[in-house]
Design goal:
This protein is 17% helix and 44% strand. By secondary structure, it is α+β, with helices and mostly antiparallel strands. Helix 10 runs antiparallel to helix 11 and helix 13 runs antiparallel to helix 14. Keywords: Membrane, Transmembrane, Transmembrane helix.
């Protein structure tokens, strides 16, 4: 044998011995000896505690489903027990992650391509604690250093990539603590027994407008959660897509959730495009609860108080936009109480405040469902109260519940609302409603707030300035051409009346409740009723017990025709006094004076009738109404006698207020009304 062959065989033998020795060392090496160094190096790299507290072992296995020479290259299999990743001490002393065991397999040949390929990962006993402080710092954001200034890191040098395959795990527990959101939630994430097709839960609707034709992946994970959020108990469950779908760039990722917070339930089902770098959401969204106003505590959107509601529509948003993030809730349908609602709303997270815009339509609105918005009686036809003002004193009529003006300053709004038909009993013949609501930096403007009533309309401009303390308010009200025949449809004799109700009011006040606003109000009110009818029966139908008493004293049980009823009130600091208040009937002239005090809800009214001679009054003394709004006390002023000509003398002093009221007389074309004649006579009376 030549010396060259001997040297070659010697080198080959050395290499084989070295390989065998290396394999023996690898197979028999106690990898736990590397734990201190490994723990120290990882802790320094991630700037937080890291430790493998249990066994660390490395074994080798042949790859499956690989042909050729590559199948002879063994893959390392790492097994580690009791792994702990800590949190920054300044945030929390709870560990970020704890694992009972970790198993992973590495494909070594991929390292030649600057790629870390981990085909399989198995986790057991996983637990994570996520904490966010009030200042915004959290324990899940890692500071791994900035290599942008490293001269060895350039765009021309491809970086390392990580490719993770299948992940299996038993249920993972997640604790979430968020101080800014006042959230304390515990959740469990687990694998579904069998994947669930996206269409089984979501249908095709959520893909509308998503800009992709790719098939949505199946649901692979399930989750459950419970805890507290903004002081409310929450619980929920849902499903998520697989990790493979999570890593597919530009693909729609399926998600589904059903969450209850307090008395509010929120359900979503749809897709999130490119979830690792979110670009778009397309979700079917359902809200349901006892009060739309509760949503302020859940999602921060200021909405009015309502009866129980539910609504379902489609929520979409372009998350990759450079403009203000905008959520669109389109083509929603729902119920508020017994009323239907439909429309489109857009919520924009802009500066200086978020804003809500859109249009809502109700084809049939039940008035009792509208009551909480306008402070009216919310009793249904069965007399059961659906929405009661909290802590309303029993001796007060005007609502004392305070406006939540801090919510008004949380966002802006520009929303139009239309009720095509209003359902109510015949005692209040509302026909339709339209309002344009604007909210700007705590100031609410309803212009117009328009009701169709009894063939006419009630047109209002209402301004509530919640940016000031106390709240400043102003209302301008115009009542036009309300037909008496339709105002009182149950009064048979009124059906032939051509009379109308017209009026104007302008009031301003300050205070954080309706009671406070009226108690401090200043302004004027004028009203005209022409060609009507009055009787005890009519007062009973209207529920006016005091009116029933007064009419009985004046006219007995007769029905008496009203030629004209006209009033002009001056309101100063919540005290309303008549400049002019006269009712002209076929039998008598009736003058009313005194005061109505909105500040203390007291009445001090005097009623003085004067016979026209067609009927001799048996009443010899004036009437009065004293007491409070809640407990009025009518009676006869026995200490005074009626003075003949008292009302007539009074009419001679009110020419100016009577002339002002003429502007409210609205006769049909080419005709005059009894009020037109009556007020014209007063205007020229000596």
């Amino acid at each position: 044998m030549t010396s060259g062959k001997k040297i070659g065989l010697s080198l080959l033998a050395f290499v084989l011995v070295a390989i065998i020795a290396l394999v023996i060392v690898v197979l028999t090496f106690d990898w736990n000896r590397l734990k201190p160094t490994l723990n120290q190096r990882v802790s320094a790299a991630i700037h937080r505690p890291f430790a493998i507290e249990g066994d660390l072992d490395l074994s080798w296995e042949r790859p499956k489903d690989i042909d050729g020479w590559r199948s002879w290259v063994p893959w390392p299999h790492l097994h580690a027990e009791r792994i702990r990743v800590g949190s920054p001490d300044a945030i929390t002393d709870a560990d970020l992650v704890r694992l009972r065991a970790l198993d992973l397999t590495l494909a070594p040949l991929s390292l030649l391509e600057r790629r870390v390929a981990i085909p399989r990962i198995a986790l057991s006993g996983g637990e994570a604690t996520l904490v966010k402080r009030q200042d915004g710092n959290n324990n899940w954001t890692f500071n791994l250093g900035d290599t942008s200034d490293d001269p060895d890191t350039t765009d021309t040098q491809p970086g390392w990539t990580v490719d993770i395959g299948d992940i299996t795990f038993d249920p993972i527990t997640v604790h979430y603590r968020d101080q800014p959101l006042d959230a304390d939630v515990d959740a469990t994430l687990s694998l579904l027994g069998q994947p669930i097709a996206f269409n089984e839960l979501s249908g095709e609707a959520p893909l509308t407008g998503s800009g992709t034709d790719r098939k949505v992946a199946d649901y692979a994970f399930g989750w459950q959660a419970s805890g507290t959020y903004k002081g409310q108990q929450i619980r929920g469950e849902g499903k998520l897509g697989s990790l493979t779908a999570l890593r597919q760039a530009g693909a729609p990722y399926p998600l589904q959730a059903d969450v209850t917070a307090g008395q509010t339930r929120v359900s979503v089902a749809g897709t999130l495009t490119d979830p690792l770098a979110p670009k778009r959401i397309d979700l079917d969204l359902t809200f349901a609860g006892q009060n739309l106003g509760d949503l302020y505590r859940v999602i921060g959107v200021t909405l009015p108080d309502t009866p129980p509601y539910s609504t379902r529509g489609h929520l979409s948003a372009d998350l990759a936009t450079r403009d203000a993030l905008t959520f669109r809730y389109r083509k929603f349908d729902g119920q508020v109480g017994d009323s239907d609602i439909h429309g489109d709303l857009t919520y924009t997270l802009g500066e200086p405040r978020p804003s809500l815009t859109g249009e809502v339509v109700s084809r049939q609105l039940r008035f009792a469902d509208l009551a909480p918005l306008i402070g009216a009686d919310s009793s249904g036809d069965d007399g059961e109260t659906q929405q009661e003002a909290p802590q309303q004193p029993t001796d007060k009529v005007l609502p004392v519940a305070e406006f939540q003006t801090e919510q008004w300053r949380a966002m802006d709004a520009d929303v139009k609302f239309t009720a095509q038909r209003i359902e109510h009993g015949d005692s209040l013949p509302l026909e339709d409603l339209y309002t344009h609501v604007r909210l700007n930096n705590g100031e609410v403007l309803l212009d117009p707030l328009r009701f169709g009533v009894a063939g006419g309309n009630l047109n209002t401009t209402l301004r509530l300035d919640g940016s000031q303390t106390p709240l400043q308010a102003r209302v301008d009200l115009h009542i036009r051409r309300l037909l008496l025949s339709r105002l009182f449809p149950e009064v048979e004799l009124m059906q032939n009346s051509r009379g109308e109700l017209n009026g104007d009011a302008s009031l301003s006040g300050h205070g954080n409740s309706i009671a406070a606003l009226l108690g401090s109000s200043n302004g004027d009110l004028g009203m005209i009723v022409s060609d009507g009818l009055i009787s005890r029966n009519l007062m009973e139908l209207a529920g006016l017990n005091v009116g029933n008493y007064l009419v009985g004293k004046l006219f007995g049980d007769e029905q008496v025709r009203i030629n004209c009823a006209a009033t002009s009130l001056k309101v100063d600091d919540g005290l309303a006094r008549p400049r002019f208040f006269v009712i002209d009937t076929e039998n008598a002239l009736i003058k009313i004076d005194g005061s109505i005090n909105f500040a203390n809800e007291r009445l001090d009214l005097n009623i003085v009738p004067e016979s026209k001679g067609a009927r001799v009054f048996t009443l010899r003394s004036p009437l009065y109404v004293h007491g409070t709004f809640a407990n009025p006390s009518p009676g006869v002023d026995a200490s005074s006698l009626l003075a003949r000509g008292a009302v007539g003398a009074f009419l001679g002093t009110v020419a100016a207020p009577a002339a002002a009221l003429l502007a409210l007389v609205s006769p049909s074309a080419g005709e005059t009304t009894p009020c037109n004649d009556f007020l014209s006579q007063i205007q020229t009376r000596p």
